Amino acid sequence: MENKKCHITSVGGQALIEGIMMQGPKGVATAVRQQDGNILVEHHEVKRIADKSKIFRIPLIRGIIGFIDSMVLGYKMLMYSAEVSGMEDLEDSEMSKFEKWINDKFGDKLMSFLMTIATILGFALAFVIFFYLPVLFFNLVNKWAGGSLSALQGTIEGVIKIVIFVAYMAIVGQMKDIKRTFMYHGAEHKSIACYESGMELTVENVKKCTRFHPRCGTSFIFVMLILSIVIVSILSAFVPPELKQNRILWMLIKLPLIPLIMGIGYEFIKYAGRHNNVIVKILSAPGLAMQRLTTKEPTDDIIECGIESLKAVITDNPEDDEIK
Questions:
Q1: Of 90-104, 106-120, 254-268, which gets the smallest average pLDDT?
Q2: What gap in Å lies between CA 222 and CA 291, rounded to an integer?
Q3: Is 268 within 8 Å of 283 (Cβ atoms)?
Q4: Is 33 helix (H, G, I), strand (E, B) or coil?
Q5: Residues 309, 27: contact at Cβ < 8 Å?
Q6: What pTM value is reported for the model?
């Protein structure tokens, strides 16, 4: 990479279906590759919870609100990219006669209902995998160890969560469609890295840049997992063993910690995006390493989407977009 001054900007993004969403000084924009090969670039008007009150911008609270805003926006943009890229048309062509009749009869109402159900089931599955299974597994191992591991419950449960998360991402990353989405994720990071390095946004320059970025959502999740180990371990030392042995009760005790962990995690990611000291490097290392699974080296056509989406939200000079 050329030896140019690096600028830490407020630009961020998300991989979509055959496209990329970017957020920057000029708002939110998407670049989606259509079936005819053209890239459709569009700006989107976004209404955020964070804009409704100054309270939502207070440290710790802004992390929770920001996460909710990101989830809502990310979902909307994914649905948008599925439509623009032609995926919905492809799915329609593969429908059976009965499925087409159902779709024609109920249309968007049915789709909204099914998506709501799918979202609820997704959260339920995540709760079972990341909350119930670690507690269940620990209880079984602790029972086998004669209760000698009780003092380490918070730590062991946290390590189990990390193992489950890493294994899950490694497995789904082998799926063809997910792997391609991870390539768009890589293009998003590399395009931002190219811009922040001060180089011209060309395919060749973007190729030279790293696909690992400290402000990535993957790093945020990993920071949250590490924080949960520390915070839950401290909590575990003050909770009576008989309460922790009750799986449901122990999970309910930990639930209120999620917003706190989320808020602290957000503040760290925000700090890490502005600083590059030794402490930040050490604490960011696990999340950056995890990006080896959640990002892939993109092809030229995918990089083009990253460049177009980024150009739509930035000024002509990265110094103007630099975080002060």
A1: 90-104
A2: 10
A3: yes
A4: strand
A5: no
A6: 0.80
Write the pLDDT tens digit of every residue in 146-198. Answer: 888 888 888 898 899 889 888 988 998 889 889 999 999 999 999 999 998 88
Name residue 12's amino acid: G
What are residue 22's DSSP bridge partners?
13, 29
Contact 30, 21 (CB under 8 A): yes
Share of the chain residues as helix, strand and coil, in percent rounded to the nearest 5:
70, 10, 25
- Flag whether pLDDT at 108 surpasses 70: no
Measured between alpha carbons, how far is 29 from 41 in angstroms, rounded to an integer? Answer: 7
- At 195, list the tokens: 């811009």
Separation CA 69–CA 185 (nearest Å)? 19
The residue to which tokens 């390493």 are assigned:
289
Using the structure block, give the residue that is written with the tokens 């991870």: 182
Residue 306, classified by CB atoms within 10 Å of its CB into exposed (0-12), middle (13-18) or buried (19+), is buried
- Which residue, chain included where needed, has tokens 């503040």? 267
Identify the CA nearest to 119 among candidates 81, 88, 83, 76: 76
